[in-house]
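Please, structure for the following, as tokens.
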Amino acid sequence: MAPLQSSHSSTAVGLGLRSTLLPSLQRSLETQNPPCSILEIAPENWCGMGGIKKRYLDEFSAHFTWYCHGLSLSLGGTAPLDFNFLESLKKFFDHYQVACYSEHLSFSGDEQGLLYDLLPLPFNSDTVTRVAKRIQTVQDYLQRRIAIENISYYMQLDNELTEAEFVNAVLIEADCDLLLDVNNVYVNCVNHNEDAQQFIKAMPSERIVYLHVAGHQKQWLTDFDLHNDDANASIIIDTHHYPVPDPVWDLLQYTYARHGVKPTILECDNGIPAWKDLCLELQQIQDVMERVEVD
């Protein structure tokens, strides 16, 4: 399969849709001033939904492009793929003309069920082969390309590859696309003392179909009762809780300069800001797009 060519403009700005945002987004349509053109949803939370949520979906479909970002497919897991779930996704994507479907390069469940977390995979050739086969199966069943997302992780496994090498190997062997999460790159590189720009540079431009940005939270290690003697020791956690910080905006600008401007979606999950503040962050994405100079 050739890399997905999005039908949406490369300068499109999007928002991760949460239920609490539905009334504000509807009001923005009434005033003909929506702050974005893409809405991204977790399909697990919307498939088969009726009532008011379905009415919102139907109404918004006339005004926005839908992207879907999955949470539970567990591409890196060992449990058999759930083909009943894949069938429901296929019908949902067809009905709402979903432009892009992405999932996390992680595992989120086993034979006993969902783990309700996105856990990292060992970066080695065996994992590449196993995950690539699962991605190919999903793509064949859905009859569409999917994008995998680089995740944030907080411990280093016994890896034979770097994260960048691992991501690239999966992309090539599975012949799939990439959702590049700029905030996750920043979080991982700060926590593991690596170079965020080098990671961005190593990603293949031709496979990047869109980007994520989000805020994060600093957490002192003493809060976890890890018996760490360094009172200043901390990590940052991908909470999507706070506004996008300056270093992530800078890394986004570097990403555009390196790979070209791509559709970019703002994620907010915890502590969703006031609507006017959310709109300002969406406008800031547009501002970064407009001032970038592509290498």
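The domain at 13-291 is CATH 3.20.20.150 (TIM Barrel). The first strand starts at residue 13 and ends at 16.
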